[in-house]
Amino acid sequence: MCRMIHAEIYKLFRTRTFKVLCIVAVILAIISIGTSKIMSSEDFFRSSLKGMPKNQQDQYIEQLQKINNPSDSKVVIGNIGMRNPSKDIFHPTARELFYGSFGSGVIEILLSVLIASIVAGEYSSGTIKNMLAYGKRREYYYISKLIAISIGFVIILGIMVTVTTVGSTILYGWGVPFDINQALQLLKIFIATSIVGLGIISFIMLLSTLIKSNGITIILGVVIFSLLPTIISFLYGKYTWFDKIYESTLPYNWALVTSVHAVNSDILKAIAVGIITLLLTLSAGIFVLKSQDIK
Amino acid sequence: MKNIVLRTHKLCKKYGGEFAVNNVSMTINKGDIYGFIGRNGAGKTTLIRMITGLIHKTSGEIELFGCSGISALDQSRIMMGCVIETPTFYNNMTARENLEVSRLVRNIPGKKCIDEVLNLVGLRDVNKKKVKNFSLGMKQRLGIANALLGNPRFLILDEPINGLDPVSMVEIRELLKKINKEKNMTMLISSHILSELSELATCYGIINNGKLLEEITSEELNEKCKRYIELKVSNAKKAVVLLETELNIKNYVVQENNIIKIYSHLGQIGNINTLLSTNQVTVDKILSKGQNLEEYFLNIIGGEDNV
């Protein structure tokens, strides 16, 4: 099992897709910092609203502030991407941008690409034969892949979060005095997010094992974790039953755990959803793989 | 008693309602080079995939190195090396990196074995070249190198010489012969190139429509395929005397019903016929008989298809 994990990690660091995704993560982080810098410039807004009278400009900017952070809600339903959750968009802090840097709905796209390459890619290239033809237990193979992908995911997420946080700290400062509790809070959020991420990885791995196609894995990953939650979010708040289901989904819990306003119970709930999804989809994935004929 | 490396008993694989492999019972002994012959879709690769554990059997038994049962079989598969159909690798990695992955997966200690197998198949000079830039022949060699990694006791090669140029074919054939001889490595080789297989194999299995039609050793095959002239004459005793004295024919056998089989003078059918006719021995039938592996295979397959 250890040797298989070693082999999967060896492959991960030599996969072009992983290297490209690391570069994409850096670019996304830089874009996130750049966007927050532009958005934080009141002069930039006022210059783009030149034709408007001053009081209308003030109203518009006030509305923008409200839209960005409606009534301090934990999760902005339907909001995807690397957000700027600052209370005052003209004075963001690195602490706030840290929460926005987890890229809800974006990291899932990157994950889908990574999993398509590592799981479905083995089927489409036929290399899975070399892995399974020597009496290796299929559950070991599957778990090794899950571990390797999780390591890749933590690295990509780490790059996104670290580059954004360090960059924005240089630009805006942390916002509050930085102490050991702050550091532990960051670590707690990162670990909790990684656990929810494990659930997402395991879910996409199951899809990939079932459909064995790189392209379809990416499409389904994007649809299920990025587009669908946004599209159906208009139903949120209209039906209680729908809200309950929606709040148990991985995309919602990803957004919840990376919310500035999340409390410990929210984080624990998100972790529980992540772990339950992980266990269910891991078992299903192993079952599917074990019953497959490898052609 | 011979050491049996692989034995299958009534092995079946069904896809939908169709048998891809139907009741195959085959035996491969230690040190054998087993030539596995069959048309496309005959069931060769399906059988090989079952042996390697890539696909599940519908029914029947597989015994590898004396082990059957799921976990014992998995344990014994560690002693195998295989190339199944076209060798597949991680295209963005070098040959060495691909073999390193394989070494890790198969739990083979030490990296020295990678250089050994690369040297063995003549790929030692492709250090930084990625597999995506390899020719088909180079990929085949790398596939064989991968299979040979860690000195397996049983080598399974599915179409190993596909895509190789004639020189490489000879090199690979000689390499396999050498390994078989020096390491007493048992091999199962399936190939469409029967002339190549006949240079290598010590026994054969012929499969058609999922059924194993015949298992035969190369000695038995040579005996069956030996070319000879078959005669049916009115007086065998007189004919034999004439053949010995007039044409100096010594290598022959006389069978029932005045049938004579002559294993020499194959190009002298006309002379033999004239000699016997002019000496009042009636020749009822005179035929040149015997086959090569290709003809023998076609004959067997044809017979099966006509059933």
TrEMBL record, chain A:
Alphabetized GO MF terms: ABC-type transporter activity
Residue stretches in coiled coil: none
Key word Amino-acid biosynthesis present: no
Any single Gene Ontology cellular-component annotation: plasma membrane
UniProtKB keywords: Membrane, Transmembrane, Transmembrane helix
Segments passing through the bilayer: 20-39, 97-120, 141-174, 186-208, 215-236, 267-289
Keyword Cell membrane attached: no
Protein name: ABC-2 family transporter protein
